[in-house]
Amino acid sequence: MRRKLAPYLLALPAWAWLAMFFVVPLAGMASLSLTSGNVITGFSQTFNIGNYLTAIDTYGEQIARSLFYGLSATLICIAIGYPAAYWIAFKGGRHKSTYLLLLLLPFFVSFVLRTISWKFTLSDNGIVLGTLKQIGVLPADFGVLNTAPAVILGLAYNFLPFMVLPIYAVLERMDHGVVEAAHDLYASRVQAFVRVVLPISLPGVFAGGLMTFIPTTADYVNASVLGGTGNTMIGSIIQTQYLVNNAYPIASAITFVLMGVLLLGIFSYARALGTERVMEVQAK
Amino acid sequence: MTAITAARAPVATPAPAAPTVPAISLEGVSKTFRSGRETVTAVGKLDLTIEAGEFFSLLGPSGCGKTTTMRMIAGFEDATSGVVRLDGKDVTSVAPNHRDVNMVFQSYALFPHLTVADNVAFGLKRKRVPAAEVKQRVADMLELVELAGHAKRKPGQLSGGQQQRVALARALVNRPRALLLDEPLAALDLKLRQAMQLELKRIQREVGITFVYVTHDQGEALTMSDRIAVMNGGYVAQLGTPAEIYERPASRFVAEFIGTSNLLPGTVTDASSEGSTVRLGCGADLRIGETLDAGEAVDVTVRPEKIRIGTAEPDPASSRVPGTVADAVYLGSATHYTVRLADGTEIVVFRQNADDVTADAIAAPGSPVWLSWHPTHSYVLPENSGPTDATQGSHHRA
Questions:
Q1: pLDDT at site A282
Q2: Which chain B residue lies closest to A203 (C-alpha atoms)?
Q3: What structural domains does chain B harbor?
Q4: Touching check for A106 and chain B: CB below 8 Å?
Q5: How many domains does chain A contain in total?
Q6: Do B174 and A191 touch (CB under 8 A)?
Q7: Could you tell me the CATH number of the domain that includes residue A154?
Q8: Which residue, B253, B88, B103, is CA-closest to B181?
Q9: How high is the pLDDT of residue A79?
Q10: Is A224 a residue whose pLDDT tops 60?
Q11: Among B68, B98, B113, which would you mutate to test the A interface (most chain A Cβ atoms within 10 Å of its Cβ)?
Q12: For residue A187, what are the domain limits?
């Protein structure tokens, strides 16, 4: 009897943690999102669906922009991260851990600091643009800061390891003999990659995609530091509504709308990649 | 050593009649690797001809160059020097995907994301064989390896033996000029391995394709091969049929690597063109066919199953030595004796239990016995053959 209970008892702290810090606040926020009132007179539960309508109506643009930024950053992360992971896993030899450490090294510095340093790097007369302007490659009035690309680049930079690590894990674990087997069975280098390596590594891309897309879409630091006024992301709106305007009901409603949109995105993404197949290979 | 397997070596199978063009030929092929500042020779100046339809084994301890040799035939390694020919055509610098040979990998290297049928169809699809023909050939091949019911499964859902057969089918379905097998049975348990040995031999006879088989297991090589190249230190130590290699090892390395051998130290006392006499440490004189130098210190070799053991004094015309039983291990069909000679040398003897041995006097340790064998069964081996001196001794399996 005791033995059967042991696994559940061991999982108890985790369950308690989840209940206390996830389920309870989530329920509280769901309830809050349906109230009316303000911070001075207090909030009362009125099942006010209007909060959601306001959220979608007023902030639809920012939500769409956030999804676009998140998606772009994720695609950039795949484009940069996949070759990096591939190179470390296949060509890293005995220095694999060193390369991974190098990849992670910048992340020992705080997220906000890193983003602010990007601001210096990308500033109109900073190291990169200033130099390029001096040697005449770029016109003097060229600027990146406070544009959408600046935010997307910042997001991609900040979340790159979350893409590289899961892809690396899959590539590292797969039997590298399959590449030789593909060559042996008349596949060219490109065919071997497209037909064998890529499909086997899809679970890693899937996991990396989730781990980049969700936090980048909800991020507010990059947009605030690198984006300027015209490129506000939904994360910044939620933050302002909660902490500056103290408009808790509307802030909660936006949060839930964002969650809903993200979940929808994830499910269609899983559908497109074929989760079942993806999970099966991963279980192998 | 798996002496029992070795003991049932097949009688000399005649090598298939040699057609004009060999399936595979290696001409002066060598491979050196850079390891830091040192250059390591994996394969040194190898000349090898493998006939069409032959079951040919590359046998040797790990690091002997057998796998490198196979990978050069497959195209995964570039030869440092020399020429690799398939069907007479020089393919030395041809990429693996353009060589008409297929490989069965030690790890199987099946594609985990594809079904069994898609794994087998992979090569045919790359060669743009029409879909209907692909389907037919895949079905036929799965039939041949007895996996017809598993076509829709993923490799992860199969047992080790089944995965092994998928790997075999995936290579064979392309009807290559030669099939290269890199220790394909190494991951299977003993019983399955023995069953698969017979299975492989059956399939090879059925499809008639040249098999090149890399293994470190002498029993496996003896059971299946038409010819064996025993490799050591990057060179071929001996090339021949299983019986030739077992019965007449060309060097001490081969004798010790294949089966069990007794080595009796002695000194040559008399030599003529007809042969030599060797006085063993225990005082017995043995007649040897080889002409040696008088006074030379040599080791006389004799296989354990060639030796007769008994209490009666044997015919003086045979080679014979007296000793005492040190140990007797009853194995059912046979008994393995360890017999100690007067000077302390130990000789291993395998005796078939043809008669009832329950009341056998020689079964007891300490009993005095006579060992005897036909004079042609003992011989003196050259220390080495070929330029393998540097690696001698460190590789043989005890």
A1: 45
A2: B113
A3: 3-256 (3.40.50.300), 261-381 (2.40.50.100)
A4: no
A5: 1
A6: no
A7: 1.10.3720.10
A8: B103
A9: 97
A10: yes
A11: B113
A12: 60-283
